[in-house]
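Tokens in:
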């Protein structure tokens, strides 16, 4: 209690009051509320906690301060019916975001998927982004601008892949996505810089597709959530204190349920940790979410049982290369995906582009660091780009970076929902490269599960954890 009081300002000394500790704390809360009511629209707070340190308790602890974590935090406060009735804490271990998947993303958004769930996640997210100034603007701050480039996605298919692309197109149109098919001749007329050799058909997004600045979206969610009363702390979650309850099933077997009571947050550059008492935890730790799941014993049970089913998420390193080509595609350049998997998009107006390719299983790089392999571009990326865009035969690589996918090794799709044996442990991870573009809709879905007890807007039950135990894959055919 003393430590909590020392974190406050404008607090009278104990010699000035004769209240019990609970009464004293209630008085502080009333004082804090009065000051907020007196200053509508202001984020000034005369009674605040030391920035960066976790509180002693919260209703919800979100592990991971990337765009998915902050989206969840925003939507939880958005659904709050009475101000300050829900205390939410976002824990981020890397305050610089130097290794965060969000900041290192290419920033694309598309509806050209094969699964209706993925199509609607991105459609709803695109709708949110179209109205981002209304959704995420903060009083007395500059208007939100994520620098969206609505240039569309362009997928190419050879004879071998044409049937799948056309099937995806019909699914996308049925679910409301604005997409068109192009013959090779139509493709060359629309984009004369493309070599159509070996192209049987192409699919082009007409609305709600393109790319934006990932860092801008992250900060927009973060600033809005903080203005709504979200608590933010820097540190690494190192443990989940829980209780265990054994229940006898109908067949006479024993089922073990767990419930999290405290999250241990270790301070940066320190051996000390702060236990945060909480009601539930959301695992939005991205590429490191399996490590968080292991803290509660997920996957540690007998093999072949639900308790022994692991969270199949691991970090996968992906390279993004920046190259220059003055004679390359101009302002009409979409986010281009070749039938071999190589991709690129325009970066600004100075003849610069970013691009890459997802490696095969045999070529997967070591994820222990974020070093870039420039030979990978020369051997695996550039030949495809130079063949498809003749102007790229003279391109010059300027720089590169590497980032992490929270790669779902089971079916490369999101994991959204609660764990069956830990009823206050939620997942929002495993997006395998789709997390940024789907973050607005995913945040709302998790908030609905927590506040309403079920999905309200989109039915995402196909993405639950139970599918790993039942071996039910939810396969997405259109993976980049």
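Residues out:
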């Amino acid at each position: 209690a003393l430590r909590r009081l020392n974190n406050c300002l404008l607090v009278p000394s104990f010699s000035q009051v004769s209240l019990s500790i609970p009464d004293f704390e209630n008085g502080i809360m009333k004082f804090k509320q009065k000051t907020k009511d007196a200053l509508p629209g202001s984020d000034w707070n005369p009674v605040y906690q030391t920035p960066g340190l976790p509180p002693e308790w919260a209703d919800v602890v979100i592990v991971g301060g990337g765009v998915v974590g902050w989206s969840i935090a925003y939507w939880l406060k958005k659904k709050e019916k009475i101000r300050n009735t829900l205390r939410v804490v976002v824990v981020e271990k890397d305050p610089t975001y130097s290794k965060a998947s969000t900041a290192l993303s290419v920033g694309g958004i598309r509806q050209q998927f094969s699964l209706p769930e993925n199509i609607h996640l991105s459609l709803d997210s695109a709708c949110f982004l179209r109205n981002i100034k209304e959704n995420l603007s903060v009083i007395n701050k500059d208007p939100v601008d994520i620098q969206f480039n609505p240039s569309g996605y362009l997928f190419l298919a050879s004879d071998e892949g044409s049937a799948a692309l056309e099937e995806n197109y019909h699914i996308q149109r049925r679910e409301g996505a604005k997409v068109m098919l192009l013959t090779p001749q139509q493709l060359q007329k629309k984009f004369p810089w493309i070599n159509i050799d070996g192209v049987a058909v192409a699919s082009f997004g007409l609305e709600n597709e393109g790319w934006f600045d990932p860092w801008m979206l992250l900060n927009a969610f973060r600033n809005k959530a903080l203005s709504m009363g979200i608590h933010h702390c820097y540190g690494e979650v190192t443990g989940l204190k829980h209780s265990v309850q054994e229940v006898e099933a109908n067949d006479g077997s024993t089922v073990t349920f767990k419930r999290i009571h405290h999250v241990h947050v270790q301070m940066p550059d320190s051996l000390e940790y702060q236990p945060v008492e909480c009601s539930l935890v959301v695992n939005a730790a991205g590429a490191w979410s399996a490590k968080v799941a292991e803290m509660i014993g997920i996957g540690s049970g007998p093999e072949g049982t639900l308790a022994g089913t692991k969270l199949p998420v691991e970090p996968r390193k992906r390279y993004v290369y920046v190259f220059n080509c003055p004679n390359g595609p101009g302002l009409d350049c979409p986010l281009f995906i070749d039938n071999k998997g190589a991709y690129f998009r325009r970066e600004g107006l100075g003849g610069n582009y970013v691009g890459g390719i997802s490696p095969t299983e045999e070529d997967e790089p070591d994820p222990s660091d974020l070093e870039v392999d420039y030979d990978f571009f020369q051997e695996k990326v550039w030949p495809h780009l130079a063949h498809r865009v003749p102007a790229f035969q003279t391109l010059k690589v300027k720089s590169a970076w590497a980032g992490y996918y929270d790669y779902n090794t089971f079916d490369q799709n999101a994991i959204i929902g609660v764990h069956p044996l830990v009823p206050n442990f939620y997942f929002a991870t495993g997006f395998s490269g789709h997390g940024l573009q789907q973050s607005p809709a995913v945040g709302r879905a998790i908030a609905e599960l927590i506040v309403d007890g079920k999905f309200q807007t989109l039915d995402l039950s196909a993405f639950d954890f139970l599918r790993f135990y039942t071996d039910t894959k939810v396969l997405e055919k259109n993976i980049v």
